[in-house]
Amino acid sequence: MNSSMVIGQYVPGDSPVHHMDPRAKITIIFFFVIVVFFANSVASYGALALFALLSVGVTKIPPRFIAKGLKPVWFLIIFTFILHLVVTKEGNVLFSVLGFDVYSGALIQGVAISLRFFLLILITSLLTLTTTPIAITDAIESILHPLKRIKFPVHELALMMSISLRFIPTLMQETEKISKAQASRGVDFRTGPIKERLKAIVPLLVPLFVSAFKRAEELAMAMEARGYQGGEGRTKLRELALRKIDYMVLVLFTFVIIAVFLTRA
Amino acid sequence: MDITFDNVSYIYQPNSPFEHRALENLSFQIPSGSFVAVIGHTGSGKSTLIQHLNGLLAPTHGSVTIGDVMLQAGSKPKNLKALRKQVGVVFQYPEHQLFEETIEKDISFGPLNFGVQEEEIKQRVQETIEAVGLSSDMLERSPFDLSGGQMRRVAIAGVLAMNPRVLVLDEPTAGLDPKGQREIMDMFYKLHHEKNLTTVHVTHSMEDALAYADYVIVMHNGHMYMQGKPLEVFKEKEALNKVGLDVPEIIELTTKMNKRFGLSLEYKKQSVEELAAEAAHKLKGGSV
Amino acid sequence: MEQSFLEFQNVSFQYREDSPVVLDDVSIQVNQNEWVAVIGHNGSGKSTMAKLMNGLLFPNEGHVYVDGLKLSDENIWEIRRKVGMVFQNPDNQFVGTTVKDDVAFGLENHGIPREEMIKRIAHSLKAVGMEEYEDHEPHRLSGGQKQRVAIASVLAVAPSMIILDEATAMLDPKGRKEIMHTVNQVRQERDVSVVTITHDLNEVTLADRVIVMNKGNVWFEGTPRELFEQKGDLQSIGLDIPLVSKFAHELKELGLNVNKQPLNHEELMDELWTLHSTM
Predict the structure, then answer these.
(1) What are the beta bridge partners of residue B37?
(2) Residue C162 in domain
């Protein structure tokens, strides 16, 4: 089974982006997403686009991987673009297609919105492309840490996420095994009317649930035997530390933000 | 049913970085009615091999023929359902496939899928539940209330109820206690003869291969490493050790005795009692 | 005088009041540094016994003592640190996303400082021969390797006793050998009691002492050699004896004077050699 496909789309690498603290990456992305909505001039868009493309370039991830990740949203980007062309009626009429007048304002807005969309998706997919799921989990735990004061179960949430990550490949293998066993008993998962195919899922799902519960029970017992009693008093092996590279990128990104606000129209 | 593998190769995820050749140029024949043991350490290709027997996998190269169904590389397999009806597979830990509310329904599931008449199914359920050593009083109970060993037996009954002509067993006794292991294997052996089945048994137990099989296939790294009658294959201790396999203990012991005391005991499936008698005789005789 | 580390005093247990009695007035002990094998057919109560040893279950009657402490709600965490446990299913006890994280889990639970943790992880992975797999994910490991990681996880916490609860039952012969080899290795390196719950007779021959369970009672207690001397009885409770023992029994009945009950081929050969040369 292809596990690399299962666990997000992490592409192992040795670039500075890979080595950055996941918290720094999440912070940058968070602000990037906000700032994108403030961009409204060629220069402000340019600054953001430059930052995003530079980041992508540094990772050395083959562009086809990134393109693959963007596949499901291409349609959305193009659709938004066309929608703007048709609906917006500002500026001069540039030309007509199939009886529709295309205004200059519409073209500009269409490009702007599509670009915004593209940048958002590019920068967020950069996170999952360069960060292991477990590192993202660590970062979330660390970022949410202050919420502990209001009794938000931060540690439990993070543990739940990491155990889920741990068991995804196991459960995938299990699914394959059970579906093969049932196929051998004459279940046909692939052909036949929809109703029949839906019915065929029961012999797959019931054993899967039974086994998942059994696993959960045994895992809970194993955790207890190994002294797990909640987050109180626990130490951690995984430690996040901001390093020089993180500060440098954060500073660089601050300049980008300033540039965006200075060049707004 | 005769089973023929003709130059079979199987590649997982071809043309990707994860490409893995699980079987390579595998050719062999299993005549109808044989009991064949497939041995080899984990990852040797045993499990890929048996998945070809009922069309769960189709060869990447070459062809597999089971009875009158042929699975050929490149062409879409036909008659898969007919094939699966005739080839029953007992997977490792088969109790993991149980899902129905009652034992009776679970055993009936296979035959029902293959369109067997209701009356006939009822009869088969009765037969198979007894064959696996459980009482038919249990039929209305939930399979999930049973002990692990009993669940295993119900799952096996579910495969037997399909009335297969070929029985494929993938370590059917894994995790059972010694008594349970012996009972289950004896049951399969009995059925094999009574119903004149063709049985393919994947096992890590050399003792089982020796006790039940009349032919042994040894797999290593996706290749056929050795094949032959059990007594012949297990003579090749060094060759087997080389690929991480042992010979059955009784053969090992016989060899050691011969070496140490210069005897010429020959192991040909005699019982421990008989072997001990021969050894005692020769040991006493040798001292005169 | 050997020092007892764990003791059951008249322990009885049942899961619910209306369910059958799993353990019935059982008294046993395990000494410091001793290897005890517990065998019995499925349902004989042997796994329940293991879970009573580290407070995963509490007795209905009787008492469990670990290192002088009487098992109670107050000291279960202390007892669990002293008594580590490896379970049957290699997958369902692997908590971490990588080998390193899994070994760390127990250490994190006990609040071991990070610096110390790193040292202990390296050391215990080395003890089970898995030091090169530190960053591996569990689904890339064999069953035997996962169980070795489980042993390393237990060792890292430095317990005085390790229980292997049918830890080899789901493994192939190679995996079983790996585990037995690992246990032997570990026992040479440090002081630790080992309890193996099993129905593999070859594992039994390696132990110092055997406890045979049958229907919730201790059916036999003694050395492996003593156990395998009683051939017929063992088969009557659904267990078997190793081939060498069977062979030795037969030779004895045929008038060959095999004195010492052999536990392995070499012992049998040596025994016969002595006879042979004096005949």
Answers:
(1) B201, B216
(2) yes
